[in-house]
Amino acid sequence: MTVIPLAYAIHRLTSVTDLTVIDAILNFFEDDDTIRALKFTMLEAIISTIMTLLVGLPVAWYLGRYKWKNIRTIRALLSVPFVTPSIVVAMGFLMLIDPGGLLDTIGIDLRLETGHIGDLAEYTGWANPGHFIALIAAHVWFNLSLVMRFIEPTLSTMNQSWEEQIRFLPAGKTAYGRFRNLWLPILGPAALCSACLCFIFSFSSFALIKWLTPNQDNLETLMAKSGGSAGIYGYRIDTSEIVLATSVVQLLILSLAIVLTAQIQKKHSSIHSIITENSRQKNTKKPGKMARFTIYSAVLYSILPLILVAIASFRIRDSSDGSYSYSTAAWQEAWSGNYSTTAIPDALINSLTYCIITLMIALPVGYVIASCIARLEIENKNKTAKMVEFATMIPLALSAVMIGLGILIGLLKWAPELFSWMLIPALPHIIITTPFVIRIMLPAIRSLEPEYFEQAKMLGLSPIKAWWHGRFSILRAPIVVSAALTMAFSLGEFGASWILVRSGSWDSLSVLVDQLMGQPKFNPMIQPMAMAAATTLMCLTFILFIFAEKFRHSEEGSGF
Question: Higher pLDDT residue, 97 or 100?
């Protein structure tokens, strides 16, 4: 399912351009626009990864080393960014940095780049430093929960007497010795794994690049801008060349990152399992002032952009004097679908329709594939199991825009009658969410004891009853978590939806937010209407996330 649309799209692009894949790659490195986009993509992804680790490591350290009241609430609030739709994140940071926003009121102008930011641009010759700073801050915000999810569970379950014991050994007498011989082996794989995933998600960022750095393209936005006219014989061959070359280069880079992530994650999982099985304990240390400041600052950082989105939906600018008032007028306009846009209820119905279809397909498919991998491992067919498991991670190496373009240029150009089918936007959602279902279900299925099924047979239970009593009772929690997150990710998907559904009656909530924000801002209702749609989307994903957290084990350290 994943490979077919992409493979056909590449085949069509090579036919249109009369280039081989190798020729396209060579042309990629000879074009100034593509090289510029690649440099920017690598730069923002690397800096975002480094900054996320610098911010996330102290948060994970303090959270895992001390006893906190309402620990589940703190974990949930720090995990909110990862399930928040990217278009909502973009809107939240726009409300933070735009003229009249929170940062602007205290003299920090990242949007128009006046004051100190303007001085920085003039002194260094760096074009748009404010936009880049805002982007990095948004990526750190989005990926912070990954670092926490990987590192904190290991710290919270590790026997803290190990640190005291190593102090008596020659290898642990100094802080450097304890870091090298204790903390690095235990936390190193978790930190590296979270860093790889931060790089992948930052590298393939779309909505944040589109709205926070409008004057600079990464590979994702470059493909999106060129994709509308690509794959058409005899028309704009240059755009087909850009999409072909950019998609292949991005696929190669992300595939290498995925392979590296899989290797590191396997090592981290084994270390985490050993620690949780042999050293599980409850923290008794009370956090100090620095720990409290770090954690509470991180929580505020996690929820502030979202609060600003909700407030902005009621904030109406007076076009005559620039003052602001608060009312529900924008909600009423957005709900009725004025200003030539889809109404929120219609977009909501579309989003829920795509979401339910995605759930009905992605959940059983992900479960079956995860079961097959576990069965192959039981039968000692480890090489085959690894190949299948790697194949399931391929969609993670395909950005949302790549998947959308693959369907648009591939399947829809091959079978154009499908373009009139309303449910076609659900296809990329299925491709994107299925790997997450597999990653959540696989560890749980691996933990099942084969003896359960043998005992069920001895008791004369039917296969359905045996599955219900022996398998579902254990897998209920990961199934519920998988279902909730699948629905949340589907509701918030933006990149592929933006490619396939840019206007018309199929608009989802995420596309509606983008459409509203893209209209001229001389109408003071436009921005709060966009924020109303974003708030609606945000509330839906929050409900699903909270539901998933109730069934999630706090000791899980997979990162998902």
Answer: 97
DSSP summary character for residue 182: I
**Residue 238's pLDDT is what?**
84
User: Angle at the Cα of 348 (from 551 to 334), degrees rounded to 5?
Assistant: 130
Read off the DSSP letter of residue 201: H
Closest CA to 506 of 424, 399, 405: 424
Q: Tell me how long the chain is.
A: 560
What residues contact residue 543 under an 8 Å CB cut-off, 6+ apart?
none
Please count the helices (runs of H) and the strands (runs of E) in the chain: 27, 2
Q: Which long-range contacts (CB under 8 A, 24 or more apart) does 329-333 make?
A: 329/525, 329/528, 330/525, 330/528, 330/529, 330/531, 330/532, 331/532, 333/525, 333/529
Query: How many CB atoms sit inside 10 A of residue 430's CB?
Result: 23
Burial class (CB in 10 A: 0-12, 13-18, 19+), 282: exposed
Using alpha carbons, select from 434, 433, 428 the residue that is nearest to residue 501: 428
- Cα–Cα distance list, 226 to 32, 114, 232, 267, 409 (Å): 15, 32, 12, 40, 12
Q: Are 95 and 308 in contact (CB under 8 A)?
A: yes
Amino acid symbol at 180: R
Which structure tokens are listed for 294?
């770090």
In a 13 Å sphere around the CA of 488, the CA atoms on its Cβ side amount to: 27
Burial class of residue 46 in the structure, from the number of CB atoms within 10 Å of its CB (0-12 exposed, 13-18 middle, 19+ buried): middle
What is the per-residue pLDDT for 36?
93
Q: CA-to-CA distance for 96 and 73, rounded, in angstroms? A: 25
What separation in angstroms does the CA of 383 have from each of 236, 379, 446? 45, 11, 16
Which of 514-518's residues contact partners 24+ apart within 8 Å by CB, and which partners? 514/87, 514/207, 514/210, 515/341, 515/342, 516/334, 516/339, 516/341, 517/91, 517/94, 517/211
State how far Cα 207 lies from the chain centre. 11
Q: Tokens 């915000």 label which residue?
A: 141
DSSP-derived letter for residue 285 is P
- pTM across the whole model: 0.87
Cα distances (Å, whole numbers) of residue 279 to 66, 155, 164, 450, 508: 16, 10, 14, 26, 47
**Residue entry with tokens 């985490």:** 272
Phi–psi pair at 529, nearest 5 degrees: -65, -45
**CB distance 198 to 44 below 8 Å:** no
Whole-angstrom distance, CA of residue 298 vs CA of residue 58 = 10
The CATH superfamily label for domain 3-551 reads MetI-like (1.10.3720.10)
In tens, the pLDDT along 291-324 reads: 999 999 999 999 999 999 999 999 988 877 777 8
